[in-house]
Structure formats: C-alpha cells, structure tokens
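Bench notes, afternoon.
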Amino acid sequence: MRPSDLLPREHGAYAQLGFPLVTGLVYGHGAPGAWAFVVVALALFLANEPVAILLGVRGRGLRDRLRVPARHRLAVLSAVAALGGLIALAVAPSRAWAAALVPGGLALLLVPLVATRRVKSIAGELLVAAVLATSLLPIARSGPASADRSLVAAAVWFAAFVTAILAVHAIKVTHKDRPGRRWTRLAAPAVGAAVIGIAVVAVVAADGPLRHGLAVVPPAAVGLGLGLSPPHPRHLKRVGWTAVASDTAALALLLVLESVGFG
C-alpha cells in the first residue's frame, strides 16, 4: 500500500479546505478553540477517503485490498476528530459552537449523496464547497471575529469555489458530449459576471463587512474568463493552478481588508 492510497484524491478539495481554514485562523486570532476546530475539520476531511474506499466508491478491487488499513485510518481519524471536538467544547465560546452548526448541518446533507455515490454530481460538488467554505465560521468565531464578518468571508469562498466548479464543468462539456451539463457553458460566465457585479455594488453602495466581498473578484474573474473561452480539458491541471493563484489573491485581499479595517 502506498501512503497516498488513503488520502483524498480530489486535489482541488485541498485548496477548498485550506483557504477557509487559514482565513478562519486569522479572523479568530489563533485562539485555542480555533485550532481545535481546525483539527476537527482536517480529521473529518482526511476521513473522506477511507469512507469512500469502504463504501466501494473507489471500486470493489480497491475496497478488498485496502479494507483493513482504511478501517484503521478511519478509526484513528475519528478519534482525532472526537478529541478535537472535546477540546473545542472546553475552550471555545458558545458562539463558535453555534457557528459550527452551519457546516455540520450542510455535511449531514452529504450523507445521502455519499451513500448513493452522487457526490461527484454538480449538486454534490456545490454542497461540498458549501461545507468547506463555511468550515471557517466556528474557527473565526472562536476569536473576536463578528458574525457578519465571518459570514462574508465564508460567502467569498463559496462564491469563488462555485465559479471554479462551473468553469471546470463548462470546459469538460465544451469538448465532450455531456447533454445533461450543457447549461454550465452559459452558467459559468454568467455566474462569474454576477459575482463580480455584486462585489462591486457592495463596495460602492454597502457599509461594513459587506465591502470585504471585493476579495472575490480575482477568482470570479478567472471563472468568467474560463467560461467565455474554455481551454481544452488537457489543460485542466494548468486551470487548477490558475484557480489556486486567484484564490491566493482573494485570501490576500481578505486579510488586507481585515487588517486595515476596510468597511
């Protein structure tokens, strides 16, 4: 068995988790409760692959070959998540636990999709993006971050991930016959343009943390560009790194706007 056999295979999901976690830690000022929630989020994220293997999502052959190590890995990660949860319960404020209900509730909606092997549907990918984007809420709320600032940051990441997901599907449907997903060819640039428009309006017309939505412009612009001019699927790896670069720019903007008190 290779060490990577039990790691999540969806490489884009690492970025979808990492950026919100970093945002949450900065907003939460690295409070002990924030770190405890990070441990929980990482453990549950890594547990995804053992669960997928045991359910046969990766194929019967892989399930038969990795059943024992997958069960062991799942047990260890479950214990780590439980320990992190107990620590968070002891040191995090009640507002953080209230915020944890958002990603927790969304994660419960994933259960039937996992059981029916529909996580890879567009609806499943969007729901996963919502879970990962909102994972920053209990982390940020473990510190001094207000509810509205935390929600705006989560919304920025969700919008960024949605534009990327739709852009990737638009690229695939442009060069492959996928009748059920042809709508993404129009939805990808439309959503990218709409997100940019909402962010600009928020900066011009709104007050307070809503103006931090400006940070979503780089990933939304990339989604818009990819939707208008989809490259060949052979370039998907390059597309992925472009999305990571735009997310990095969004993170930098979020942190700068937070540090200077913009809005």
